[in-house]
Amino acid sequence: MQEQLKAIQQEALSKVEEVNDLKELQAIKVAYLGKKGSLTQVLRGMGKLSPEERPVVGEIANQVREAITTAIEEKNTILENAALEKQLQAESIDVTLPGRPVKVGGPHLLTKVIEEIEDLFIGMGYEVREGPEVETDYYNFEALNLPKDHPARDMQDSFYITNELLLRTHTSPVQARTMKEYNGEKGFKMICPGKVYRRDTDDATHSHQFTQIEGLYVDKDVKMSDLKGVLNVFAKRMFGEDRKIRLRPSFFPFTEPSVEMDISCKVCDGHGCNVCKGTGWIEILGAGMVHPNVLEMGGYDPNVYSGFAFGMGPERIAMLKYGVNDIRQFYLNDSRFLKQFHQA
Ligand code: 2U9
């Protein structure tokens, strides 16, 4: 049995020497020292030994167990350190390496222009209102003097959801809702920015979804000159103190009289160029005095109250101000296009 014990020790130590994997090392431990281990097996035979032999063999058996246990623990430490070192290597960060560029975003050009216009009117005492994009036919059309069979409805080809619900074609319904809310009790000034939808084929100047900012000022004795004054301030603040404005007669079902406002062309300073198609003027927005029918439907007595309204397309203003020649660029989310305006 002593030879057996020596052989087991030899065999175990050489296996421990060769092994390079913690799991395999664990398996060796079980194979030799475990309940069914070969050393344990031999020791079960000690009962058959003579009383003289037992302490000798017992001592050798303990030495063998000690030697195998120690060798396994030392090898375990070596393999664990090697595994840690390997992990540290794998996880080591070369701090001298350049960092990954963190792409910093920025406000979308349209957001910037809309906020610029909002700040301008907030500065003139206007409140900013928002409203539902899924609108009723009443507030999108009827309340704006566009009864069911009115031809102008076709001008605003619409995405109907049901006979009574559609994607709003302008933000005017929000003004109509606000009038209803104040219900002729008091005057107010508001602007309403937001997305609107028209069944249009997208091209460089048209998009089925675009934004609008409309405004409304209702009070006693609001005059056309008030409108002209506000539009003049708007034009100069948005496009430069040197710009001149011009109001041309126009028509909208919800305003009477109606005008379109032009600003003098920056490129040719009004002398005529291809940007202003030789006119020297660039059309910016539409406006007018609120139609008495619209005041009435809003709960305002047109003999007591009057008002002016205006409407503009922020995409158009951004295209003019930043030289963008295709409205679709605003929606393609092409970072090469968008990041140009981060510092603008
Ligand atoms: C109420 C009363 C009157 C809003 C107005 C315009 C003129 C206008 C166009 C601008 C660019 C539409 O997107 S666009 O093509 N809008 O020119 N909008 S007056 O008039 C109102 C609105 C609400 C209760």
UniProtKB/TrEMBL annotation:
<keyword id="KW-0436">Ligase</keyword>
<dbReference type="InterPro" id="IPR022911">
    <property type="entry name" value="Phe_tRNA_ligase_alpha1_bac"/>
</dbReference>
<keyword id="KW-0479">Metal-binding</keyword>
<comment type="similarity">
    <text>Belongs to the class-II aminoacyl-tRNA synthetase family. Phe-tRNA synthetase alpha subunit type 1 subfamily.</text>
</comment>
<keyword id="KW-0648">Protein biosynthesis</keyword>
<dbReference type="InterPro" id="IPR002319">
    <property type="entry name" value="Phenylalanyl-tRNA_Synthase"/>
</dbReference>
<feature type="domain" description="Aminoacyl-transfer RNA synthetases class-II family profile">
    <location>
        <begin position="109"/>
        <end position="340"/>
    </location>
</feature>
<dbReference type="Pfam" id="PF02912">
    <property type="entry name" value="Phe_tRNA-synt_N"/>
</dbReference>
<keyword id="KW-0963">Cytoplasm</keyword>
<feature type="binding site">
    <location>
        <position position="256"/>
    </location>
    <ligand>
        <name>Mg(2+)</name>
    </ligand>
</feature>
<dbReference type="GO" id="GO:0000049">
    <property type="term" value="F:tRNA binding"/>
</dbReference>
<keyword id="KW-0067">ATP-binding</keyword>
<dbReference type="InterPro" id="IPR045864">
    <property type="entry name" value="aa-tRNA-synth_II/BPL/LPL"/>
</dbReference>
<dbReference type="InterPro" id="IPR010978">
    <property type="entry name" value="tRNA-bd_arm"/>
</dbReference>
<dbReference type="GO" id="GO:0005737">
    <property type="term" value="C:cytoplasm"/>
</dbReference>
<dbReference type="GO" id="GO:0016740">
    <property type="term" value="F:transferase activity"/>
</dbReference>
<dbReference type="GO" id="GO:0000287">
    <property type="term" value="F:magnesium ion binding"/>
</dbReference>
<dbReference type="InterPro" id="IPR004188">
    <property type="entry name" value="Phe-tRNA_ligase_II_N"/>
</dbReference>
<dbReference type="GO" id="GO:0140096">
    <property type="term" value="F:catalytic activity, acting on a protein"/>
</dbReference>
<keyword id="KW-0547">Nucleotide-binding</keyword>
<protein>
    <recommendedName>
        <fullName>Phenylalanine--tRNA ligase alpha subunit</fullName>
        <ecNumber>6.1.1.20</ecNumber>
    </recommendedName>
</protein>
<dbReference type="GO" id="GO:0005524">
    <property type="term" value="F:ATP binding"/>
</dbReference>
<dbReference type="InterPro" id="IPR004529">
    <property type="entry name" value="Phe-tRNA-synth_IIc_asu"/>
</dbReference>
<keyword id="KW-0030">Aminoacyl-tRNA synthetase</keyword>
<comment type="subunit">
    <text>Tetramer of two alpha and two beta subunits.</text>
</comment>
<dbReference type="Pfam" id="PF01409">
    <property type="entry name" value="tRNA-synt_2d"/>
</dbReference>
<dbReference type="InterPro" id="IPR006195">
    <property type="entry name" value="aa-tRNA-synth_II"/>
</dbReference>
<dbReference type="GO" id="GO:0004826">
    <property type="term" value="F:phenylalanine-tRNA ligase activity"/>
</dbReference>
<dbReference type="GO" id="GO:0006432">
    <property type="term" value="P:phenylalanyl-tRNA aminoacylation"/>
</dbReference>
<keyword id="KW-0460">Magnesium</keyword>
